[in-house]
């Protein structure tokens, strides 16, 4: 396998923030990853301090943060609401790269949640009503009955967004770019800031 040259600060010409570099890496991943280049591992913590992690899809990114959508009544939703902070990692195996993000979490606007929900496939919209996410399910048939009931309720109509289905934004305080290198001498370039209203600093870490 041919390894890329080591990362240098010139790989990140916009020294003020990490979002330009992230956009560039994501654009490359979209041409090389066979499936779901926007899949992220989202980490949260429950009220007892026990961590949880699961895969979700990243649906937006930019200077205000990284956006994903979920059921706020699910385990992840309760943890996001309760702790108000989260972390994510996105790994692109085809490029031997990953990006880590940490920061406080807040809901996106209702208009943003409405807009994204409206863009989803109808089956996914129905599922958002039918699934009591993270709660006990007796069997698959019970879920299918709920789906059939929702389909009948909205037959011939638009499916509205459930009030519990919303988007969240991680406003990053820490963004790390990782590039694999031979012999585990990987490159790590970090953008960090002490608070959301502070400027970014950029540094390099030992692998």
Q: How many beta-strand elements?
A: 10
Rounded to an integer in angstroms, the radius of gyration calculated over CA atoms is 19 Å
Number of helices: 5
The end-to-end span amounts to 20 Å
Q: What kind of assembly state do the chains in view correspond to?
A: single chain
Mean pLDDT value: 93
Low-confidence stretches: none
Tally of domains: 1
CATH architecture type? Roll
What is the makeup of the main sheet? Answer: 10 strands, antiparallel
Top-tier CATH class: Mainly Beta
| Beta-strand content estimate | 25-35%
Structural class: alpha+beta
- CATH homologous superfamily descriptor: Electron Transport, Fmn-binding Protein, Chain A
Percent range for helical residues? 25-40%
CATH topology: Pnp Oxidase, Chain A
Overall spatial form: elongated
Describe what this molecule looks like in 3D.
By secondary structure, this protein is an alpha+beta fold. It contains five helices and ten strands, in the order αββββαββαααββββ. It has a single domain (9-120, 163-205), classed as Electron Transport, Fmn-binding Protein, Chain A (Pnp Oxidase, Chain A, Roll). It has helices at residues 19-32, 75-83, 110-119, 122-130, 140-153; strands at residues 39-45, 51-57, 60-62, 65-71, 85-92, 97-107, 165-170, 174-179, 187-192, 201-205. A hairpin with a 5-residue loop joins β1 and β2. The longest helix is centred in the N-terminal third of the chain and has 14 residues, at 19-32.
